[in-house]
Write a structure and sequence with these properties.
single chain; alpha+beta; Chloramphenicol Acetyltransferase; 2 domains; 6-stranded mixed β-sheet; about 30% helix; about 20% strand
């Protein structure tokens, strides 16, 4: 059992700019959602001082990342659209101090579950969203001084994963007593992606990522699939297994498209995951399936965005196929479909997608499309479809607050949709961990194909 001992409201150490911060269309679709992640740390002889270190350093880093201390509010200019802005009121972030009666070993591999859920801050979504903190962090000490967990609930309205990780690592650097370099300071002006709205009756792209997803053949809606329970598990791929998957995919590429760049880690693993999902479900060969994922637009948009751009700079993209071709054709064929989705994401596609998002009557509707929720009106992203997120390029294990690097990092929620998060393992040997969220009825078959088909 976890007990919350203390709750602290941490505000910036110095006065920060006041007023309203414009949120982009990319930010709008993530406003009512916190991303739950967890960092696990080994025991340290100076562990008694962790909470004070975190409080003091958080107060310092919020001077630079002052939007995190603000609150969301409705725009006065576009009331009817439900557009949201950031009120820079320095209300602060929340830091919880907790302890558990369990040892570090009682949590197993820390895969997302009801057990690990207690290490993550609970966000009360029933409160007025204007009062909701955008960052809540829970420090939980394990029994017998066996280390601690840092559970982070970070509002997606603030930034994508790239920005969130840079914030956490900068916070950790301050906690270690170091100073941020100029190029480590966040770039906060989101108007770099404020484009004039030029709606078109015919979008410039098909935008299958924004269209209704395929239903299981013979079904009229997703109600039956929504009722099915999903669970989460961690699947590890060694460096050799990753290289084997890449070689398997690239053998097809060398035969069909000579001179093309080799498939990336994401393209090969993403294709493998989509195939495993399609095989495990036992669907008909002519069943359509869509796989959705995101691409970072910082270097894909013209002009490019600063690398320290602190906001949501992701474009949703997707690719589709029939189960028969996904499961029977070579892995490289499926990886090529993944590549087609990522290669779409260029300047004109990004701006066209923003046009489509802005064409929604209310931003609430766009939010449901991107995130989904538990209502019948929101899209269901599970069977026969799939989602993949690649976090392999993010330096999670640099989050050393002065007590050593984390021994584990991972996504901490259990998704109601079928999806996977790909991260590097803490071993630093090129192996990866896949956090898989999948319908319980098909999970064992998925795991079987996941390793047999490498």
């Amino acid at each position: 059992m976890v007990t919350i001992k203390n709750s602290y409201t941490v505000i910036p150490e110095e006065p920060t700019p006041q007023g309203r911060l414009w949120l982009s269309d990319k930010d709008q679709v993530a406003t009512q959602h916190h991303t739950p992640t967890i960092y696990i740390y080994k025991p340290n002889q100076n562990q008694e001082n962790v909470i004070e270190t975190l409080k003091n350093s958080l107060s310092k880093i919020l001077v630079h990342y002052y939007p995190i201390a603000g609150r969301l509010c409705y725009s006065d200019e576009e009331v009817d659209s439900c557009r949201v802005e950031l009120n820079l009121n320095a209300k602060g972030a929340i830091l919880l101090e907790a302890e558990t009666t369990k040892t570090i070993h009682d949590y197993g591999d820390f895969s997302p579950s009801d057990l690990t859920k207690e290490l993550i801050p609970i966000i009360d979504y029933n409160q007025p969203f204007q009062e909701m903190p955008l960052l809540v962090v829970q420090l939980t000490s394990f029994k017998n001084n066996q280390g601690f967990a840092l559970g982070v609930a970070f509002s997606h309205s603030l930034s994508d994963g790239t920005g969130a990780v840079k914030f956490i690592n900068s916070w950790a650097k301050i906690a270690r007593g170091e100073t941020l370099e100029p190029n480590e300071l966040p770039f906060l002006d989101r108007t770099l992606i404020k484009f004039s709205h030029t709606p078109s009756k015919v979008p410039r792209f098909e935008h299958i990522e924004l269209k209704p997803l395929p239903l299981i053949i013979g079904r009229k809606d997703t109600s039956e699939e929504r009722k099915k329970k999903t669970t989460a598990t961690l699947l590890k791929l060694s460096y050799d297994q990753v290289e084997k998957l890449k070689k398997k995919a690239n053998d097809f590429l060398s035969m069909k498209k000579k001179g093309s760049r080799p498939f990336s880690k994401f393209e090969a693993i993403g294709a493998h995951l989509w195939r495993c999902a399609s095989k495990a479900r036992g669907l008909e060969d002519d069943q359509e399936s869509v796989v959705r994922f995101h691409a970072d637009i910082r270097r894909r948009i013209n002009p490019p965005l600063p690398q320290n751009f602190f906001a949501n700079a992701l474009a949703l993209t997707a690719t589709k196929g029939c189960v028969g071709e996904i499961t029977s054709k070579p892995l490289g064929y499926v990886a090529q479909k993944i590549r087609e989705g990522t290669e779409l994401v260029k300047d004109d596609f990004i701006k066209s997608q923003i046009d489509v998002i802005r064409s929604f009557r209310k931003m609430d509707d766009a939010m449901k499309l991107f995130l989904g929720d538990e209502t019948e009106k929101a899209p269901y992203f599970g069977n026969p479809n799939f989602q993949v997120a690649s976090w392999t390029g993010m330096p999670f294990y640099e989050a050393d607050f002065g007590y050593g690097k984390p021994i584990y990092f991972g996504y901490a929620g259990v998704s109601p949709h079928d999806r996977a998060y790909i991260t590097l393992s803490p071993d630093g040997d090129g192996s990866v961990i896949v956090s898989l969220h999948f319908q319980m009825a098909h999970l064992e078959l998925f795991k079987k194909y996941f390793y047999e088909d490498i």
